[in-house]
Amino acid sequence: MIRKSRIAYALAGLALFAGMQAEACTTSQWGVGLTGGAGGAQAAIGGVVAGQPNGLGGGTATRYSGLCGLRASGLGQYVQDGTPTAEGTYIARFYVYTGVTSGTPVVFSSMEGAPAPDPNQRVYSVQYNRANQQFEAVNQAGTVTAIGAASSALANKWFHVHLTWDRTAGSLDVSVQGAGSSTPNATASLSGFTSSGGAAGPDFAQLGWISGAAAGRIDVDAFESRRSTAIPPLCRGNANASDETRNILDAIAVFNEINAVSLATGQPDTNEDGAVNILDAIALFTIINSASPGC
Ligand SMILES: [Ca+2]
Ligand SMILES: [Ca+2]
Q1: Are residues 88 and 158 in the same domain?
Q2: pLDDT of 32
C-alpha cells in the first residue's frame, strides 16, 4: 500500500491553464486502519505539511515523486498508517530528504499498538544522525546501531530506506540509497530487533519528524509497505512516469519543470539533491546515453 500525499489527480488537467499545477496536496491517504498512535486515529500529527515544491497545493514541500511531498519543519510532525496488524514480517520503503542542520531526528517508527504489554511502543525506528551524516536503527530496548559508515548519507539529499523486519528472527535488514547513487550507499543486517510479547509486531507506522531534537527540516515521500517481497525503488530520472524507461521525453518533463511550465509527474530530481534544475537534465542525459537507460 502506497501512502503518498496527494489525491486530486482530476484537478491536474484544469490547473494546467494556470501553468504550474495548483493541485491539492493532502494527508488524507494516511490514517487507514489506525487504532493506536498519538492522538488516537489522527492521520497527521503536529502540523506536518503536504505541499508542492513550488509552494502550491496547500504548502511548500520538497517531493521525490509526483506532485506533492510532506514537510516536517519541527519535532513531532509526522503522519501515521494503521494498516499493519501484529505482522510477522514487515517490509517498508520510504524516501527522506536530509534537510536538518543538526541533531538526530527519528524519521520512521514501526510501532506496537494496544493492547498490553507495551501499547504504543517502538518495535524499531530509523533516525538520521546529522553530525555523522548516516542513518541509524533503534531497537525496542533503545539500542542505537549505525547503518553503514559515517558520511554514507550526506545532508540535503534524498535517500530511500528499505527495511525488512522479521519477528521470529528478530532481524532488521536495511538498505539506504540516494544522493544520485546507482548502488546502495549503506546496508546493514541487524539482529536483536525482537518485539515484546509473542504475538506482537507492528500495528502502525509513523513517518516524518517523530521525535529527536534537531534543527532544520525533514521531507518525506512515497512510503510503501508490504508483508512479503522486497519493494523496488522508484526509477530515478523517470520524470514523466508514463513508462519504465528514461529517454528524451523525461528530459522534456525536467525542462518543463525548470521553466515553470508544469511539474513533472515522476521522479525528475535525477541527482537526488532536493532541487530540480539543469544538473538533473545533465544527469538524465548521462543515463539516457548509457548502456542501461531502462528502469
Ligand atoms: Ca520515462
Ligand atoms: Ca536535483
Answers
A1: yes
A2: 84
User: In angstroms, how far apart are the furthest CA atoms of the chain?
Assistant: 57
User: Separation of 238 CA from ligand 2 center, angstroms?
Assistant: 13
**Grid cell in block for residue 17:** 491553464
Q: 263: CA distance to ligand 1 center in Å?
A: 14
- Cα 276 to middle of ligand 2, angstroms: 4
Domain of residue 199: give its range.
2-226
Of the residues 180, 197, 226, the one at which a domain ends: 226
* DSSP per-residue letters across 119-148: TTEEEEEEEEETTTTEEEEEETT--EEEES
User: In this structure, what CATH number is given to the domain that contains residue 272?
Assistant: 1.10.1330
Q: Which of residues 175, 195, 226 is at a domain's end?
A: 226
Q: What is the mean pLDDT of residues 70-85?
A: 92
pTM (two decimals) = 0.91
**CA of 119 relative to ligand 1 center, distance in Å:** 44
